[in-house]
Automatic annotation (TrEMBL):
Ferredoxins are iron-sulfur proteins that transfer electrons in a wide variety of metabolic reactions. The keyword Iron-sulfur applies. Coiled coil: none annotated. Its cofactor is [4Fe-4S] cluster; [3Fe-4S] cluster. Residues 1-30, 31-60 form the 4Fe-4S ferredoxin-type domain. This is Ferredoxin. It comes from Paracoccus onchidii.
Amino acid sequence: MTYVVTDNCIMCKYTDCVEVCPVDCFYEGENTLVIHPDECIDCGVCEPECPADAIRPDTEPDMEKWVEFNRKYSEQWPVITQKKDPMPSAAEMDGVEGKLEKHFSEAPGEGD
């Protein structure tokens, strides 16, 4: 099992989760985060830290696409290990439907 970041992180990008990750398996895109599924040790400490409830275990239904999404971008984006400010749009974008299709950017973030 692994944990993955889902679309509710897009345009929010809270980074509370990266601070508690013991194996530094978070990677930063321009407007979202992902978890490298092969590096995640399934400790689960990140899930309750996410204010947007965007981190889910891969054992939930229909998570296969998110595992592959997280794998793809974690291999392209820089690692992030330190908390940063969320995106300015975080509060208003939390819970908005269709963020993957309407707002996702493939561009990498800055990382650490």
